Amino acid sequence: MKKVKVAPAQEAATLSEKMRRGDLLSAACPSRAIMKHITSRWGVLVLLVLEGETRRFSELRRLIGGVSERMLAQTLQWLEADGLVNRRAYEVVPPHVEYSLTPLGQQAAHKVRDLADWIEGSVPAIMQHWNNTSAS
Fold first, then answer.
1. pTM for the full model?
2. Cα(38)–Cα(23) distance, integer angstroms
3. Cα distance between residue 109 and residue 39, in whole Å
4. How far is the C-alpha of 129 from the C-alpha of 119, rounded, in Å?
5. How far apart are CA 54 and CA 86, in angstroms?
6. Distance in angstroms (rounded) separating the CA atoms of residues 95 and 102
């Protein structure tokens, strides 16, 4: 077998380069926590509902069927801590809080939207596969 020489640009990245970019395959990489927040069931849906919109908590809960108040609050806190969601509280009675996406959150929502569109478009083929698998 012929040995292939790797060009310097293709050599393994240094540790500092990996830490700057992230290494999702490494259990210790902080990018894993961010991926968990964005790609969780509720994280994806929050990003989709907030894409281009500012919404109140009650509106988010109404639009995202099946999410509990606790899970929605936790998901919003995660996404806010990651810099993807802005939370704006107004000092009025009763309290009024609005959520919107940051520019980084808009980028993430765009990526998630592509995945969501693919899933929606692929449902018939996937369901057909389910039916074929369960019939065997």
1. 0.78
2. 16
3. 10
4. 14
5. 9
6. 22
Give the pLDDT band (50/70/90) at residue 26: confident
CA–CA distance, 23 with 33 (Å, rounded to integer): 12
User: Hey, what are 114's tokens?
Assistant: 């592509």
How far lies 52's CA from each of 92, 107, 112, 113, 126, in Å?
A: 25, 11, 14, 12, 30
For the chain, the maximum distance between any two Cα atoms, rounded to a whole number of angstroms, is: 75
Q: Which distant-in-sequence residues (6+ apart) come within 8 Å of 61 by Cβ?
A: 67, 69, 72
* Per-residue pLDDT tens over the stretch 56-101: 999 999 999 999 999 999 999 999 999 999 999 999 998 899 999 9
Give strand pairing partners of 56.
Answer: 98
Distance (Å) of CA 121 to CA 68, 78, 111: 27, 29, 16
The span from the CA of 44 to the CA of 58, in Å, is 18
CA 121, 46, 89: angle at the middle one, nearest 5?
160
Distance in angstroms (rounded) separating the CA atoms of residues 112 and 117: 9
